[in-house]
Amino acid sequence: MVELVTVGDTSLRLSPRDNERLETATDVRMYATGTESNVAVAASRFGTDAVWLSKLPETPLGRRVVSELHEHGIETQVDWSDDGRQGLTFYEPPCEPRERVRIDDRGSAAAATMTPGDLDMNLVQSASSVFVAGSTLALSETAAETGAAVLRAGSSGEGVSALELDYRPELWSPDAARETLTGVFDSVDVLFASEDDVRDVLDQSGQAREIAPTVAAEWGFQMVVLTRSEYGALVYHDGVIHDRDAIETEAVDETGQHDAFIGAFLATLLDGDGPDVALSNAVATAALARTIPGPLATVDDDEVERLVDSIDQSGF
User: Which residues participate in catalysis according to the annotation?
Assistant: First the structure.
């Protein structure tokens, strides 16, 4: 049985080197990046058997995505398409006082036409856990229906289905996101979200320790996990809130930290540990991911364990 199946779109990200601007750069770096594939890579670093499913164009760019993911040790199952294109993301990292620039060019991406028939739904249904992100559901009505089908299949047996709100205002409005995402909530066991996304998409107010149990009660989630940027993260489960402070690090690239957090959290749960241990590992993995160029978390469980132990011993 596969432990973790993630389903979703992966783009190719192009970023200027050496703090150049997008409008003047002549030299860029290319990375495969997608919430679901990033999560699968992070989970695999903990020994989780992770498979990423998607639909890609049968082009050099589509094959570039798969080859990079294979380099990071995850299995892929791709429906190769003659229609649609490879989605692109152009990213200029922040450099004080400049803010980051992100341009998503994902219109007509092959993944927008992905249907359940393009996927191995038996694999999805038999997995210990499935994961989908809101940024994939935002691509099209077809992608949203497919994401819903994956979550239903994942929660139909003994598996755990997990969703990340992953709200991106450049892809859809808060109202459109709320309508689509809440429509799949009845098939979701574990909800991941940033505190800001919960406020924007689910129209929640108050402190994070108040929001998490409210959201869990309203939509019947088994677990709600909120990331809080520089304030750390918390998880609400079975009437109990666990929280962890953020770990200060040098920020080389912050783009993959949230996905790394989710991957580590799911991997720890799948290994049989509780949400408190999962939260500690997730916060540590996110901190390490911030020190690595690119969106993929090339960490290992030993360094995560050492970081968690050092934080515990210091009393923070």
Answer: 259
